[in-house]
């Protein structure tokens, strides 16, 4: 069974909407762990739009399961990772203007920059995963850099416009996954996974980690809304 890494970025997104102290992603990480999460994932973006430096520091002290630190292959963020030493760093592409991570990391086009970052992280004892599209050439280039895992981008599958297109994307993920496993890379997947579309992805042979964020936080708002309102009504009453 694949492990579940719960991405708590969007708990911080709600907090940052008011620049206040709640909801605290550290609390969310504790609850996620109590509920059975196998890992906690956060993305410290260069623009700090959701997760803040303080969050990562406190999470490093409190998270008992694997802390997966998503990051751009940039020196300033690598410095923070090396200081904190999370269990795993996942290198992702990052553009300031994007709404979320769009497309996988181009390991071939950025080989030297990615290699330098991977080496620095590995020298600090951090396992490195690369977030890439389901493309054999990107998988081969990742293997060349000596990383232990690749996370295949499931956004194309999640956003497919028809059932046929979604099946094609699932096939691409399955065959790219088999290629990664043949090269002895751990197989992770994530992005855009929801309660409706996760099952076929969880069944991909040998997928060992799924990272899921937005859909879990979105559902938490809905399943928790009624209780939150009843509690406020009770106080007012
Ligand atoms: N995996 C990676 C590498 C990501 O960048 C993200 C988004 O931060 C996710 C998984 C989670 O995606 P989502 O929030 O759509 O579940």
Task: Give a structural overview.
With 237 residues, the protein is of the alpha/beta class. The protein has one domain: Aldolase class I (TIM Barrel, Alpha-Beta Barrel), CATH 3.20.20. The protein contains ten helices and eight strands. An eight-stranded parallel β-barrel has the order 1-2-3-4-5-6-7-8, surrounded by seven helices. The mean pLDDT is 96. Bound molecules: pyridoxine-5'-phosphate. The site of pyridoxine-5'-phosphate (PXP) has 19 residues, from strand 8 and helix 10.
Number of domains: 1
CATH topology grouping: TIM Barrel
Can you identify the CATH superfamily? Aldolase class I
Shape: globular
Beta-strand content = 15-25%
DSSP E strands, number: 8
Structural class: alpha/beta
Widest sheet: strand ordering: 1-2-3-4-5-6-7-8
Which spans of ≥5 residues are poorly predicted at pLDDT below 50? none
Rg calc = 18 Å
